[in-house]
Amino acid sequence: MKQIETIATGKNYSSVSVGKMNEIIEHELPMGDFTLKGKVFAGQAVGATGSELSFQTLVPGQDSGFLHTHKTHEELYIILKGEGQYQVDGEIFPVSEGTIIRVAPNGKRALKNTGSENLTMLCIQYKANAFTEADSPMTDGTILQEELKW
Q1: pTM of the prediction?
Q2: Which among 127, 115, 121 has a CA at the least distance from the CA of 98?
């Protein structure tokens, strides 16, 4: 079973590796009565305080195994490789590399690999309605007048 590896940590940062994208399939996530192969949560490992993130690989023909919703979390699904179908509230649409799907907490969601190669996705989970106009990257970020050191 593949493990998350710590790369570096400091006062204001942490860095981990889940491995190469084609190695995501080697991770296993215990889910109570069963183990979900090909899924790894990384937010806690990296010390994220405002979101959770996970990677998942589905082999051809595999689906996510169940529909699910959330109480307060919105999710962004980013398809990194492969192709498939995404289902939200009974609607089904095609997805492929580069597709991004946002699902509100109450959306009933699932993903299926309908392609001939592995489908790998990144899911970012965060509290819905947490960002305001003041949180815009254009107003929250500060460009520093310091020299880059490589």
Answers
A1: 0.90
A2: 121
Burial class (CB in 10 A: 0-12, 13-18, 19+), 65: middle
Write down the H helix ranges in the chain: 43-46, 137-140
Query: What distances in angstroms separate CA 131 from CA 3, 50, 58, one per listed residue?
Result: 32, 11, 31
Contacting residues for 132 by C-beta, under 8 A, at least 6 apart: none
pLDDT tens for the 150 residues of the chain, in order: 899 999 999 999 999 999 999 999 999 998 888 888 999 999 999 999 999 999 999 999 999 989 999 999 999 999 999 999 999 999 999 999 999 999 999 999 999 999 999 999 999 999 999 888 888 877 888 889 999 999
Q: How many CB atoms lie within 10 A of CB 99?
A: 16
**Would you say the C-alpha torsion 26, 34, 63, 46 has a positive or negative sign?**
negative
